[in-house]
Amino acid sequence: MDNIQALNNEGERSDELKKYQELLDCWNNQYKITKAQLKLIIKRPVEIVNVTHKLNLAKKYLKKKVSCYEKVNCINLLKDNEVKIIGKNKSVIFVCNNRIVGGVVRESANKKVASYFGAKIKATMEVHPSFNRGKINHADNGKMVAHGQRKNPLDSFVGNYVFKDEKDINSEALKVYVEDGDLIANWIYDQARENLPWITESYEQFKKKVNIRRNGMIGALFCAKNYEANGHSDNDRSDWALGFVYEEGIVKDGHFFYPEYGVAIEMTSNSTWYWLTKAVHGTAIIDLSEGGTRYTTAITLTEKTARAIERTEKMKNQ
After folding, report:
1. β-bridge mates for residue 299, sequence order
2. What pLDDT, in 10s, does the model give residues 20-50?
3. What is the DSSP letter of 107?
4. Element at 150 (helix H, strand E)
């Protein structure tokens, strides 16, 4: 709380205080969330959905824009008879040849916790610059930012994603921003390690390989607003990516499509979903006609970041 008081005591201008209102609210609400609530595991009925590996569908959807209705230059997801749609009320695990390949958990957190992290996601998005993943291999639409580790663009070693106007942010505020982003990433990661341990296995193996002993997430946290992505696969070192959805108001469509396994997930607020990073996936066009907003956040360890971490740790041990 001292960090927030420091911001106010420094006499920030009213427009600047308004800019950081989400951050202030987030920290104030922090004291209404207990450790027990953060660790609460909400048990939901989970359905096993057996799927098959469909390379023909992966090829069909790769680099393609997808919608849930008829639209020029788009694949209509809901008219593809080879794709099974997972409705918004279902929690499922996808299994292919006795191997888990993805899934979704609905109402994955206490509602207060979901709102708490929703505010943190919004605050994190305000302080990092947006970027595009790539116009050809990873065409997308909407705003995306990243927090955490990456390859330093100035050398081959690991660094951190930058903040907007970092030179103008006082040290107390910067500390809050870093702690916010780290808390989101570690909450998602720790929930997976506790409840979906196969997801964090490749992360833990990597940490062991490079002799990193600290607990928690390693890699990057990606936060997005009203995000849509054409079909693509990622060159990530982690086997899995894990995401969380938070919505305000009414948001329609924007299904997560996973054609390599013949399924698509109807997205809903307070859901956690996970997928194999190297499998073709994407997000269909979102219908925001009723004024809603969708925020998503996901953790992964990219190949570039993994190589940078390896170089950095090797240099430390020389």
Report:
1. 221, 242
2. 455 445 444 543 444 454 444 445 678 999 9
3. S
4. strand 140-151
